[in-house]
Design goal:
Number of strands: 21
Strand content: 15-25%
Radius of gyration: 25 Å
Helix content: 25-40%
Shape: elongated
Bound molecules: flavin-adenine dinucleotide
Strand order of the largest sheet: 13-16-15-14-17-18
Structural class: alpha+beta
Number of helices: 11
Largest sheet: 6 strands, antiparallel, barrel
């Protein structure tokens, strides 16, 4: 019997363990430092787990060499990943943009089938066991936890990255890999919130809108996207914002521009003039009643400089035009990008040049493999990161 130890019982580690256990001559020990395997998974996709995306092409991935992801994604494209999950009993549904979720709408279902898949005589799951060291012995590996030392023919590093630290993101994987001679690129938080001057977002905290977002440096557009935007007490969150934070990393002089009403300025102005005519006695800051949530409508008026205390009928056209402009382009100075605590993924990781993309085996240490977020590959928002975790975990689990 060959002994395989997988360090990290997250998405990629569980997939690797199930795949490796299909070989009857392999005994798998999956070691997880937290009390339960897959803790982060239950929080993914706002508790719904966006487990893959049908359009998982390499262009949705980042890193020093995004092409590294190509071999694993070609070997385990979304259709094959979904077949793997179907085989475990999971039923799924595909939504807008090719995003796939469990039919139950609960991330817990994804976790449940993975745990079920691990219930095999040749799989042992050790939880609450942080691996503290790996040593290369002449022909085997020695893996140490506070309770015991294990010996293995092969080791898969599946420790994830340091994003989502509240859910267990740690630096352990980088340190364990470094102890065996591997190096990493710089790490920074990706798919995270933008911090902005707090005045407007704080007052709008909890409001979610569908908007177009542009990230500007001075007047130069750096990134643009559309979708879900959530106002928080420190700035902006939501999937549309996650997609542009990558472009914000390490830059200054940035502004986030929200287009809340994607219509020509003249059309918006005509609507405001019609509202003014219809409700001349309405308080001016309620002129957007019915067009936007009331807190947002009032905030847009304040932002546009609509005079407090006036009636709608008293507003000069210049103020209505300023409001129409604000509805199309509300600008918030960006003060930074939120850290690893709230980030969904770590950009950067173990240098991919030190691993064979077709096997995910180390080029430096035979018998050592790595998969998932620990490697210098991260994906766009929309199921791409879990797709990478499954694809790379399944490939590493083949122990080619
Ligand atoms: C809030 C949130 C929501 C997300 N939503 C989505 C989504 O909907 N779709 C999507 O595609 N991606 C999503 N992601 C990203 C996705 O969850 C990760 O990219 C993915 O889980 C990475 O898989 P992994 O196996 O590499 O790492 P993880 O899933 O992080 O697993 C690594 C595991 O290793 C363990 N570990 C670390 N060090 C040790 C050690 N020394 N000894 C033993 N065990 C150790 C950790 O405790 C952890 O359980 C989300 C992330 C977050 C934080």
């Amino acid at each position: 019997m060959k002994e395989l130890v997988i360090i990290g019982g997250g998405a990629s580690g569980m997939a690797a363990a199930i795949r490796a256990s299909e070989e009857g001559n392999t005994h798998v020990t999956l070691i997880e430092r937290q009390a339960r395997a897959g803790r982060k998974l239950s929080a993914t996709g706002n508790g719904r787990c966006n487990l893959t995306n049908l359009d998982a092409e390499v262009c949705h991935y980042h890193g020093e060499d995004p092409g590294f992801a190509g071999a694993a994604l070609a070997e385990y494209p979304p259709e094959r990943v979904l077949a793997f999950f179907r085989g475990l009993g999971l039923r799924t549904v595909t939504e807008y943009g090719g995003r796939v979720y469990p039919l139950s709408d609960h991330a817990g279902s994804v976790l449940d089938v993975l745990r079920l898949g691990l219930e095999k005589p040749n799989v042992r799951v050790l939880t609450a066991s942080p691996v503290t060291a790996i040593r290369r012995e002449p022909t085997r590996f020695r893996i140490e936890t506070p309770e015991e030392a294990l010996s293995a023919d092969s080791v898969i590093l599946a420790c994830g990255g340091c994003a989502g630290s509240r859910l267990g993101g740690v630096m352990d994987g980088y340190a364990l890999a470094a102890s065996l001679g591997h190096s990493r690129t710089a790490l920074y938080p990706a798919l995270t919130q933008l911090r902005t001057a707090p005045e407007y977002p704080r007052a709008l905290k909890g409001i979610r809108v569908d908007a177009r977002v542009r990230l500007l440096q001075g007047e130069r557009p750096l990134a643009e996207t559309a979708g879900d935007v959530l106002f928080t007490d420190t700035g902006l969150s939501g999937t549309a914002v996650f997609e542009i934070t990558r472009a914000a990393a390490g830059k200054s002089g940035l502004t986030a521009e929200l287009c809340l009403f994607d219509e020509p300025e003249e059309t918006l102005l005509a609507d405001l003039l019609a509202r003014q005519k219809r409700w001349p006695n309405l308080e001016a800051n309620r002129i957007l009643t019915g067009a936007a949530q009331s807190r947002l409508g009032q905030m847009l008026c304040r932002y546009a400089g609509v005079s407090g205390g006036l009636r709608a009928g008293e507003l000069p056209e210049s103020q209505l035009r300023a409001l129409a402009q604000a509805m199309r382009a509300m600008r918030l100075p960006v003060t930074g990008v939120s850290g690893f605590e709230t980030a969904q993924v770590t950009a950067g990781g173990l240098r991919t040049g030190e691993f064979d993309p077709k096997t995910l085996q180390s080029r430096l240490v035979p018998g050592l493999y790595a998969c998932g977020e620990l490697l210098d590959i991260d994906g766009d928002c929309g199921g791409y990161n879990l797709q990478w975790a499954w694809a790379s975990g399944l490939l590493a689990g083949e122990l080619r």
